[in-house]
Structures are given as C-alpha cells and as structure tokens.
Amino acid sequence: MTDNPTDNLILVDEHDKQIGTAEKIHVHEQGLLHRAFSILVFNSKNEILLQQRAKSKYHCGGLWTNTCCSHPRNGELLDAAIHRRLKEEMGFDCELKKTANFIYKAKFDNGLTEHEHLHVFTGLFDGKCSPNPEEADDCKWISQEELRKDVEKNPEKYTYWFRLILEKLNQPIQP
Q1: Which of 89, 94, 114, 116 is catalytic?
Q2: In b/e form, how buried is each residue of 141-170, taking b as 16+ CB within 10 angstroms?
Q3: Which of 5, 99, 136, 146 could form an SS bridge with 131, CB 3.0 to 4.6 Å?
Q4: Which of the residues 60, 69, 129, 139 is marked catalytic?
C-alpha cells in the first residue's frame, strides 16, 4: 500500500504528543504540525541510498531525497511504521536506529506546507533495492562528500527536509 493524499496523519503538539488526526491533504493545505519520519540507509562503503521521488507525488515530485520518508498511521507505533514504509517504498528492510528529531515548517510552490515533527533514523544495508514506482522513479548510492557538494551546487534538485537533515547533522552521518 502506498501513501495516499486521503490518508489520515497524526497531529501532534510541539512535544510530539498526539492531539488528533486529519486527512493528509488537509494537513498539508493548512500546515498543521504532524508526526513524520525520514530514513537514511547507508552501505558498508558509507554511501547513502537516495530516492528520486515519483513525479506523480502531490508535492516535491521528481526531487532527490533520503532513502524513505513518510508518516505513521493512527495507532501505529513509530518503530513499526519505519519498517513498513521502508519495505513498501524501497523493497527491503534493515535494522534502524533513531538519530535525531526536530520540528520544521516549509511552504511549497504549489501552496502546500510541510509542518513536521520529524524523527530521523539511520540504517545499514548492502543489498539491492527495488523502489515502488508509485513512490520513487529512481534510486542511487552516493558518497556523503559527493552528495554534500551537489546539494550545495544544486539545492533545487533535493527536498527541503533532506537538505535540512544534512544541515542539522552537519557532519558525515554514521549509520
């Protein structure tokens, strides 16, 4: 099952305490604070696996981003959601550990707003990925050094939240 603009998201306060739920498209139209996660998967060469978001996505389609990003379902534990979505989006699963969390807000050209309490996870994986075409048009492994240079030179090719993760972690990220 892929993410759908009519799915319900978990609304939270600034301490990540659930205060309700609302339809995903409404949440992004209104810029409501909601729970989300981003996963960064590395291989044994310390390269990071990026996905190019499917052009059909309702926001940020075609941009490069971290390995997987999504939202837990109402009543779903965050730990279950990260493994479910990694399998759904990229066709594999691996051990994941929490690296960071923070709140951000970003408005997009199409009028939608991301306002997320974002939980960041990292993992290690040396196998093959097979991205779900409804979620990602492509994927690639890239060194952190090459990635940071390209993000600096071509920030418009990358999602806002991914650039923010790289900035907040501000050093080579360890899986």
Answers
A1: 116
A2: eeebeebbeebeeeeeebbbbbbbbbeebe
A3: 136
A4: 69
User: Residue 72: what pLDDT?
Assistant: 95
- Contact call for residues 1 and 71 (beta carbons, < 8 A): no
116 is catalytic: yes
Burial class (CB in 10 A: 0-12, 13-18, 19+), 174: exposed
**Which tens digits make up the pLDDT trace of 10-38?**
999 999 999 999 999 999 999 999 999 99
Q: 161 has which bridge partners?
A: none
The answer to whether domain 8-169 has CATH 3.90.79.10 is yes
CA-based nearest residue to 135, from 76, 68, 37: 68
Q: Name the stretches of the chain with pLDDT < 50.
A: 1, 5
Confidence at residue 3, expressed as pLDDT on a 0 to 100 scale: 53
Q: CA dihedral defined by 55, 83, 102, 138, rounded to 10 degrees?
A: -20
